[in-house]
Design brief:
7-stranded antiparallel β-sheet; 5-stranded mixed β-sheet; globular; UbiD C-terminal domain-like; alpha+beta; 514 residues; 21 strands; Pnp Oxidase, Chain A
Length: 514
């Protein structure tokens, strides 16, 4: 049982970790860890568990590695001052509606050390490999920051997977349809696009880096960093980069300054380059739970490296993990709630993205129909959700008597409440797809799996809500659990024995009387 974290300083990664020391939420070790495979293997061993901080990194004496900080939903909620993780989205909603704009400072911890000559990123950052099939160690967990005129007056932060093919340049993967894609399209061949890659950032910035693709809620030109500022109850501090016309996250541990070159392409993998084929050779795992594939991407050119002086901390992203899941979904749950509320205010009462729905692949809406004219809006919401976010495969609507956090109850609703004649839709068939979703690549109808031929096979929309006119026919049985007190019949040991073989779903039904 974790002790209460309470109010703390989460304006930097290191202050956050410092506050967790001495609690079961963070395990610190001075045993040496190899960034090649060992870090990822240990992170997966304890996926969903405590955060880990490695004080001794092989080949990097002045560096630390951390992972799994976001792997627990309850821990993340407490960090942001929310008692119930299921209520996190409601603070996130307020942040979306009332962003706290970032401020620019003159001096910053991220620039205690500045390297602008003889740049070799490999010597500075302990990049990791995820699997033995990876093309080598890659840079994950880098928060790309694009600001000012390059993001229509706002600021954008995102994850873009990178593989350093040289000492000072890397591939720069951009998801089709993303904000980064919009930037690259707007500035295509118009000159270098200055940006910074920020490593080891405040948790609020990490949170926003995963909040992608629901762009009618966070459109181009908005302040994504401002939303993060509200989440940490203090504006995020930025600082002018030393070598390019860009801004850095002031409290970052490392910053790679540079620019995106849309006139040059770089292969993500030496095998893919030698073969001249995209979408064939393996890259590290992706959010959908499958091995990634290597592509040919734009080039990111490093012009400078800055970092903290005292043992900077690198927080790489372990893809398709609980760590990655909560980074990617906690804000998305709020954005889907806001989307639904704009379509029909008050109809949706909760949203959830289960781990099995994958980070960008699905969402569950819980609705409470208040009157006959609410009927039908749930289908509009389902269609909108599947159409607005690349990679979405499944959207489900259920009633307010369904526990959307219990997969058994969701499956029960699917089984007993869907009218097959009009409750199942395939939405957006043939639309643009997601390069990192294998089912979209295979839906292209050919063997050409390049990013120019991604076609969406269609998202599945399930309306598992009760028709308002037939609500009484679907009443759940109110067994009288509240009328009896088991202790009046059984001892504590007997009650423990009686519950020993009960599943989680059985305990849920016992508690509710269903």
């Amino acid at each position: 049982m974790s002790k209460p974290i309470g109010k703390l300083d989460i304006t930097s990664l290191r202050s956050t970790l410092e506050s967790l020391k001495g609690t079961p939420e963070l395990i610190v070790t001075d045993k040496q860890v190899n960034p090649a495979l060992e870090l990822a293997g240990l992170a997966k061993h304890f996926d969903g568990g405590a955060a880990m901080l490695f004080e001794n990194v092989k080949g990097y004496p002045n560096t630390r590695l951390t992972t799994n900080l976001f792997a627990s939903e309850s821990r993340v909620a407490r960090l942001f001052g929310v008692d119930d993780p299921r209520k996190f989205k409601f603070k996130a909603l307020e942040a979306i509606r009332h962003p706290m704009l970032p401020v620019t400072v003159k001096d910053a911890p991220c620039q205690e050390v500045v390297i602008d000559k003889d740049i070799n990123v490999w010597d500075v950052v302990p990049m990791i490999s995820h699997t033995e099939k990876d093309p080598g160690r890659t840079l994950g967990g880098g928060n790309t920051l694009i600001t000012g005129k390059y993001f229509w007056g706002g600021d954008h932060v995102s994850y873009n997977r990178m593989n350093f093919r040289g000492k000072d340049f890397s591939s720069f993967q951009i998801s089709p349809g993303s904000h980064s894609d919009m930037v690259a399209t707007e500035w295509y061949r118009k000159g270098p696009i200055p940006m910074t890659i920020n490593l080891g950032v405040p948790p609020a910035v990490t949170l926003m880096a995963g909040a992608g693709f629901v762009y009618m809620i966070l459109p181009k030109g908005c302040s994504e960093v401002g939303v993060g500022g509200y989440m940490q109850d203090k504006p995020v501090e930025l600082v002018k980069a030393r070598t390019v016309d860009a801004l850095s996250i002031a409290e970052a541990e490392y910053v790679l300054e540079g620019y995106l070159d849309t006139t040059q392409k770089v292969w993500e993998s030496p095998l893919a380059e030698a073969d001249g084929k995209q979408g064939v050779h393996p890259f590290h795992p992706e959010w959908a739970g499958y091995m990634g594939k290597a592509y040919r991407t734009y080039k990111f050119q490093v012009t400078g490296i800055t970092h903290r002086k005292d043992k900077p901390i690198y927080y790489p992203s372990i893809v398709h993990s609980y760590d990655d899941h909560y980074i990617d979904t906690l804000m998305r749950e709020a954005m889907f709630f806001e989307l639904a509320d704009r379509i029909c205010p008050g109809l949706v009462v909760d949203t959830h993205i289960p781990m099995s729905a994958t980070d960008w692949g699905g969402v569950v809406f819980q609705v409470k129909k208040r009157r006959a004219r609410d009927e039908g809006y749930q289908k509009n919401i389902l269609s909108a959700a599947l159409s607005c976010s690349l990679g979405m495969r499944m959207a489900l609507c259920v009633d307010d008597d369904i526990d959307i956090y219990n997969m058994d109850d969701l499956f029960w609703a699917l089984t007993t409440r869907i009218d097959p004649s009009n409750g199942i839709q395939v939405v957006a068939r043939g639309g643009a797809g997601q390069a990192f979703q294998p089912s979209d690549r295979s839906s292209a109808g050919s063997n050409d799996w390049t990013q120019t031929n991604i076609r969406f096979g269609g998202g599945m929309a399930y309306d598992a809500t009760i028709p308002f006119a037939f609500k009484d026919a679907f009443e759940r049985p109110p067994y009288p659990v509240s009328k009896v007190e088991p202790k009046n019949w059984f001892s504590d040991d007997q009650i423990k024995a009686l519950k020993a073989t009960m599943t989680d779903y059985a305990k849920y039904m016992a508690k509710t009387g269903y």
